[in-house]
């Protein structure tokens, strides 16, 4: 090939590349423009009243593969209005006390890289002994149990790193149903249909860009309901925050909440860090804690009636009633999966068979363009459905 011909091909290639870049920038610009019309929150704020403690679960710092120090994470949490953060750096087994940083409670947990996938542990009463990194998944789960901690299956159905130890899955108390990091990784695998709209929207309104990544699939909830048939499971929404997207934007988009207990009083975190950490851990494992995609609205006032809140159990034939937060009327629906059936009133759930049922509130939220898309809003733990009570 003559030099002139080679340069001609190079020129064509550069022009094609430049055309593609301009096309992508133009497409992203369209989503940026559309984001300026996205209105949050979708559900109006409730009248003034007690606010539930809220925080981030599953957060990484520079102690492992995160992009921020603990102090920077605390600053981002404070700016987002959070009260606590459960830090879970990879294989960081150094025992450390909980501490308030800039008014935000930092609680130390750990994400263990086992041979079967990742296992999050928090609320440990004793240090984890031995070398756990790379350990068999069942042995790691047992080690967390011996240390008095709570074991949570991290992103258990994620394409990149799912959980692969069935017996340990049956023993673990917690299950990450929704994961911000998993949403992001899923978008990366679909760069044009999902990542590009989110990046373009992020340039115009950062929280909207993060919310466009929220695309649930059936895999996690199917696995959750399968496991919840055997014993009650704790659902946690994981930020799995590494700094991309930014900590503050992810903290603004979703959080774990600690609703009132049996006395109806909203929990108040003590000023002592250790006592406050104990209250948070107790709240997260109580069965009452719930996740909310708070960019869509705050969850105060949400109640799932007709179920033992602590045990998360009910019986075939029982009817559960969803009490939505004040102001949550239009653009909200109750989503039911598993052993329940939504009645025509839209808020009553009849339990029709043994197994487990997942009841969530979903919101018609701003979509990628100028339309809308249904997204999860308030996510409690599942209810185990037992055989019909003999008293009936």
UniProtKB/TrEMBL annotation:
It comes from the Bacteria. Residues 55-116 form the Polymerase/histidinol phosphatase N-terminal domain. GO terms for molecular function: 5'-3' DNA exonuclease activity; 5'-3' RNA exonuclease activity. SMART domains: POLIIIAc. PANTHER family: EXONUCLEASE, POLYMERASE_HISTIDINOL PHOSPHATASE N-TERMINAL DOMAIN-CONTAINING PROTEIN. This is PHP domain protein. It comes from Cystobacter fuscus (strain ATCC 25194 / DSM 2262 / NBRC 100088 / M29). The lineage of its organism: Bacteria, Pseudomonadati, Myxococcota, Myxococcia, Myxococcales.
